[in-house]
Amino acid sequence: MKNAREYNFDGLVGPSHNYAGLSFGNVASFSNVKSASNPKQAALQGLAKMRSLAARGFAQALLPPQMRPSFRLLRGIGFTGSDADVITKAYREAPVILASAYSASPMWTANAATVSPSADTADARVHFTVANLNNKLHRSYEHVQTERTLRALFGDERHFAVHEALPSTPAFGDEGAANHTRLCAGHGSPGVELFVYGRVEFDPDAPAPQHYPARQTLEASQAVARLHGLDGTRTVFAQQAPDTVDQGVFHNDVIAVGNDDVLFYHQRAFLDEHGTLHALRRAMANVHAELRAVRVDSSEVSVADAVSSYLFNSQLLSKPDGRMALVVPQECHENPAVSRYLQKLTASGGPIDELISFDLRQSMRNGGGPACLRLRVSLTDEEAGAMHQGVVMTDALHARLVAWVEKHYRDRLSPADLGDPALAIEVQTALDELTGILGLPGLYEF
Ligand code: SUG
To answer: Residue 13 belongs to a domain with what CATH number?
Structure first.
């Protein structure tokens, strides 16, 4: 077993963070449509989480925001002229598409890619498959920059393999790590990879949600497992309960989270709860680990409470004493049933004995909690040394980024502001400067 640590790569919120109601099936996104956002506060809230977890000794890094608006998207659908012309025309004729081109959704890096650590893969490299996010227009073009970013950070092919996104078609709907969990005895030893999907494209009889879209297909999950060279005896595929998706559980990480040998999940997470646990236990026996399942009953926390509080969109982090901390959004304390449950959980003598809460309200209003905001990458010491170092969170980087945000970000962005061509120039100026701070020249295709 090698010495390995889990790095959390949080998405740095971009300067165009806004509420455009673009994610049908995501209750928060729909509820806050067209309200004004505060990009400055959003970025500072995210940075505060990163700094605080780094200060606790957890390995913390970041993924930079993407360039916005996407002129490639806007010009590709027929808006012409100068950049200012393109924005003005798009705002007049297709404001929802302009909002899609301006979306700061790459902040939810749990959807950037699926990652398999080197302990699990056939060629002993860390594998990344960039998510195509093809279910929503505003996320469907993220993969181009995400691939570029991951190659800039993990360019050393002796240690890392970055795969481009799967074919962008409904059969291969892929939302990345939000539907993937790894269970293991320790980060440096082989683990079991659990892929959770919402529907099956090529089986018309398979159950599927009726109201909201299932964004991840079995076919996509299987493709990622193949690309990463995973061992079939240590890979489990499980379907989400379709009626739970219909209640707003648009990714599995809204209803379950795993870490080391612990799976913290809601009773209604999986279509076949017992079958899923059985498959996990059998697979974990192959890596000499025993599953510790922490099940939350509907009688204690309803699916509706789980969705509104984002209890399961939490980070489960291993502490040096072997216990685990649950990183929750503050909304969990504001929901009486969830707050009661959490008090009981931490006093139960089980694996989770501490809560760490953050105010992530700006992201939460678009349906993104602590777990959405981070991509987990387990790295051996050698691999950690081989990645780009400029994105690793330190006090010094935190201070520079706070000053950068204070300088460039607006504290109010309303839907009408997206029609102002000056915003595009502000975003470009900010991100250009960011490449210098992070030591990533050429990160963006201007
Ligand atoms: O894809 N919201 C994101 C939230 C992603 C949360 N990620 C995880 N659960 N891992 C989404 O639905 C809203 C954008 C808007 O409406 O402006 C949005 O894209």
So the answer is: 3.75.10.20
